[in-house]
Write a structure and sequence with these properties.
Length: 645
């Protein structure tokens, strides 16, 4: 095999019984055979892209036990269309996003071998001299060995095979490994995750043996898994055992330093598509020069460093210390100026001065406090990068209310063969108009989103009253009652005599109010709770949703926080309520069901109007319907996260 065949070629290789794709010099591979592996070239293909995008040519030997690549049998065009529909379906829940353009899903450069970071489970294989390393079978803690995983870079597979031998008899146990392959340097960093107190000497010897056998491994670290659910088993601090403590990766021309565990796109080749979209949108000067850029979930500074090449000043905000240190190092190695702030975004968002903002939050989305701060800052443009369409849609709905409309959403196929999709939402400043539910003379009912206060609580803060005055041109409108921030539903606004008449209805308790709340536990079918003085709340259980009670509440008075206090006092706090609720339950529902506010909604207002009875009914807010749907899907076991993350 000489002449032109010694150049970079693409060929299919038979490796431990699995057809895999390689693109490198054939002579290099033949010169470095893999331990305990026989290899032969089966056939040449024209290009990596042609092979990877032909569903008929991809056969995974780990199906159906693994189940991670749910779209493996679909042609590329159908995969991309399905992912676009998934994004469109998420946005369709929210009427405020009806005009947002959903563009075609952009394909990744390759559908195989793209995942440069893999987090895998480990367990002994009884009766053999090797461990099983792979993913948990769906719905179990049984490890499915995946030596021929299609999405893992071929360059990582020999290292994982060596770990199967080294970890087979390791004591203490190593229940997880976290590996990162660098396209830029053709090197690997390995993190061993120990189940208990670390025996440094044992693991150091193991690390040195791995590095001697696999010279592409430039460093090995050790992390002790905290006592936490499986999803958090890979969190914590990594101690360096041997070799380099960092690895380098590139996106385009930019180089980044990565600490073990630091967030970085697992598909750097496709990440270039994200960077192109973000850069083009935020740095467009059609609306004037860029005054400042803030990257509020910066990680190792990927977007901040890229934007700093063309705009300034740029501020990167990152809560994880090691990632913030990486961002500083990455800015220095690329010769750009980036101010790095190591703090949670919610602690500093209100203080930032930037007219361009990039958001790349975790799967659960952006906290309401950060969204509110962005609304007050009123940037000219925002680019929101998301790996979870539901949390993206929920947050875009809030930002629309705060004066940032979604211009377009672009899905990007960052996770080929799987059902997961990344998206970039492009937002620009635009006024929001509240929905008028009822109007009669000088009185009206206006829908209040949970994110807005009825009255502005700080100078310049968006509020329902200000939006209603602007939309109607009635500067003397006043609320006849209030809903707390975090509660959605109709608010009565009026002026003059109409305002006084509505006020008397509330004072004489002639105004009927019905709230819907989802509470912890399952309360009695009906009940009555009394509080201080004449405070009374009656309730009726309407349904049980995912093990929680959906109740309809009838407050007989209108004290502040009355319903929240009363339900908490009988052991059934409202889900999502930070003040009176259960923190652990709230955290669980925020991460699994995307509940980012108290589940409290004013569903009915009924009263006697000047021309007859008035009944204003307001369906559950879309974000609450989303939380209910995800809660019931979770209960049914149909909402599984990406098990490599």
């Amino acid at each position: 095999m000489g002449g032109p065949f010694m150049k970079n070629i693409t060929f299919v290789l038979q490796y431990t019984g699995t057809s895999l794709l390689f693109k490198k010099r054939a002579a290099d591979f033949m010169a470095r055979p893999t331990r305990n592996c026989t290899a032969k070239i089966l056939r040449f293909v024209d290009s990596c892209r042609t092979f990877a995008h032909s569903a008929r040519m991809l056969a995974c030997p780990h199906r159906p036990l693994c189940g991670a690549c749910g779209l493996l049998d679909l042609p590329l065009s159908e995969q991309l269309e399905l992912k676009k529909r998934k994004v469109a379906s998420a946005l369709a829940r929210f009427p405020a996003l009806a005009r947002a353009e959903i563009r075609a899903c952009r394909p990744a450069p390759s559908s195989v071998g793209y995942r440069t970071r893999v987090k895998l489970a480990v367990e002994p294989a009884p009766g053999t001299n090797r461990a099983r390393i792979g993913l948990y079978a769906p719905g179990t803690h049984r490890v499915v060995d995946i030596p021929g995983c299609l999405v893992v870079p071929p360059e990582l597979l020999p290292c994982v095979e060596e770990l199967r031998r080294l970890l087979a008899t390791s004591d203490p146990k190593v229940p997880h490994v976290d590996l990162r392959w660098s396209r830029a340097t053709s090197s690997i960093h390995v993190t061993l995750v120990a189940a208990g107190p670390a025996a440094q000497g044992h693991f150091r010897k193991l690390a040195e043996e791995l590095m001697s056998v696999r010279p592409e491994v430039i460093g090995v670290g050790l992390r002790v898994a905290p006592r936490a659910p499986v999803s958090r088993a890979l969190a914590g601090v990594t101690d360096n055992l041997a070799g380099e403590a960092f690895i380098e990766e590139r996106i385009g021309e930019l180089s980044f330093r990565l600490s073990p565990g630091a967030f970085f796109q697992v598909n750097p080749a496709a990440a270039e598509l994200l960077h192109e979209l973000v850069r083009t949108w935020l740095l467009d000067t059609a609306e004037g020069p860029v005054k400042g850029v803030a990257d509020l979930y910066a990680g190792v500074g990927a977007f901040a460093v890229a934007l700093a090449r063309e705009a300034g000043p740029v501020t990167a905000v990152e809560s994880v210390l090691t990632a913030a240190d990486d961002a500083v190092a990455s800015a220095m190695r690329n010769g750009v100026a980036v101010r790095v702030v190591q703090a949670p975004a919610e602690d500093v968002a209100a203080e930032l001065e930037a007219d361009r903002i990039v958001l790349d939050p975790p799967r659960r989305g952006v906290p309401r406090s950060v969204l509110s701060a962005i609304g007050r800052a009123a940037p000219a443009r925002v680019a929101y990068v998301s790996c979870e369409p539901d949390s993206l849609a929920r947050d875009l709905d809030v930002l629309a209310v705060l004066g940032l409309a979604t211009h377009a959403v672009v899905p990007v196929d960052m996770f080929p063969l799987t059902e997961h999709v990344e998206s970039v939402a492009l937002l620009e400043r635009a006024p929001w108009k509240p929905e008028i539910l009822w109007r009669e003379g000088d009185a009206m009912a206006v829908y209040k989103p949970a994110c807005l206060p009825t009255h502005p609580q700080e100078p310049g803060e968006p509020s329902l009253l200000a939006a209603a005055r602007a939309a109607t041109g009635l500067a003397d409108l006043q609320p006849a009652h209030r809903l707390d921030v975090g509660t959605s539903g109709p608010v009565l606004l009026a002026r003059g005599e109409a305002l006084r008449n509505l006020g008397r209805l509330f004072e004489t308790r002639a105004m009927i109010k019905e709230y819907l709340a989802l509470v912890r536990g399952v309360p009695h079918k009906a009940g009555r709770v009394g509080g201080r003085g004449d405070e009374v709340t009656r309730y009726k259980r309407e349904a049980v949703k995912g093990g929680y009670g959906l109740v309809r509440c009838f407050p007989e008075t209108g004290r502040r926080h009355q319903i929240r206090r009363h339900l908490a006092s009988i052991g059934h706090p409202i889900l999502g309520d930070e003040r009176y609720g259960d923190a652990r339950t709230n955290r669980f529902l925020a991460e699994t069901c995307l509940l980012a506010r108290p589940f409290l909604h004013l569903a009915v207002l009924a009263f006697e109007g000047p021309h007859g009875p008035v009944r204003i009914e307001c369906p559950l807010a879309p974000e609450l319907v989303l939380a209910l749907d995800r809660l019931e899907a979770l209960r049914a076991g149909s909402d599984a996260p990406d098990r490599m993350e």
